[in-house]
């Protein structure tokens, strides 16, 4: 039996009369790269916020890293890394100060922090600008720094919300090289993206439409099931089907 890093059953979130996430059920294996796809407004970020302990579900069940989202949200936060869609570091702090601040938040000991800080600076290539405010850095460097900080404490699961949004193709490729590296170390990667080609890099992919998971399989399996040559074509089929259903 494999270890399950994330498990949901009927997970739902409503805001008044609007259902943002509607009865989603799935499992993610330890060390798996799990792609969570969908158009803007499909419910991806809402689902991720529930799984990270930032938003309480309306109904349904979910466990992350072995902890219940209702009863053990604080334990979940200590066991995961999270990189938000919007840049989450402090612009007025230097790269070095951001690393040390978040290292403290993640519970890394004071004696260990200098070494961890140097490791992150070296991995991102920020040696020459480590003492400059983050706001002065190019977007690609900011995103790579945020990603490195999200895994600073060796979490069991890392949630990446649109991590490559707005960066150039070279940076995108570097991001995915890092994602493969941490998955090889046993860290589970739960990633949302609107770049359909990136879905091909995932072990399995789910596609959300209007708050529901309409398809879930390996990239190869999805393309075979829908007789498509790409995940983008699968996504378009599902979106058109949903539009016809509403019409």
UniProtKB/TrEMBL annotation:
Keyword DNA repair: no
Any Pfam family hit: ABC_tran
Annotated source species: Gracilimonas mengyeensis
Molecular functions per Gene Ontology: ATP binding; ATP hydrolysis activity
Domain ABC transporter: 6-235
InterPro entries found in the cross-reference section: AAA+_ATPase (IPR003593), ABC_transporter-like_ATP-bd (IPR003439), P-loop_NTPase (IPR027417)
Family matches, as SUPFAM superfamilies: P-loop containing nucleoside triphosphate hydrolases
Annotated protein name in UniProt: ABC-2 type transport system ATP-binding protein
UniProt cross-references to PROSITE patterns, sorted A to Z: ABC_TRANSPORTER_2 (PS50893)
Cross-referenced SMART domains: AAA (SM00382)
UniProt keyword annotations, A-Z: ATP-binding, Nucleotide-binding
Domain of life (superkingdom): Bacteria
Tagged with keyword ATP-binding: yes
């Amino acid at each position: 039996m494999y270890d399950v890093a994330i498990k949901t059953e009927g997970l739902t979130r409503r805001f008044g009369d609007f259902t943002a996430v509607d009865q989603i059920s799935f499992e993610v294996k330890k060390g798996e790269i799990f792609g969570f796809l969908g158009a803007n407004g499909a419910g991806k970020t809402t689902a991720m916020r529930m799984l990270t302990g930032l938003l309480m579900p309306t109904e349904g069940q979910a466990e992350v890293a072995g902890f219940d989202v209702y009863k053990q949200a604080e334990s979940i936060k200590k066991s995961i890394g999270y990189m938000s869609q919007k840049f989450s570091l402090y612009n007025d702090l230097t790269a070095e100060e951001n690393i040390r601040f978040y290292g403290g938040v993640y519970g890394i000991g004071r004696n260990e922090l200098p070494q961890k800080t140097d490791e992150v600076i070296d991995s991102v290539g920020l040696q020459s600008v480590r003492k400059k405010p983050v706001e002065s850095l190019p977007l690609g460097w900011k995103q790579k720094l945020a990603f490195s900080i999200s895994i600073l404490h060796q979490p069991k699961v890392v949630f990446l919300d649109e991590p490559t949004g707005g960066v150039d193709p070279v940076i995108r490729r570097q991001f995915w090289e890092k994602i493969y590296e941490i998955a090889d170390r046993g860290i589970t990667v739960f990633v949302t993206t609107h770049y359909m080609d990136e879905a091909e890099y995932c072990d399995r992919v789910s596609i959300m439409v209007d708050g529901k998971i309409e398809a879930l399989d390996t990239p190869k399996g999805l393309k075979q099931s829908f007789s498509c040559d790409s995940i983008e074509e699968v996504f378009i089929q599902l979106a058109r089907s949903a539009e016809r259903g509403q019409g």
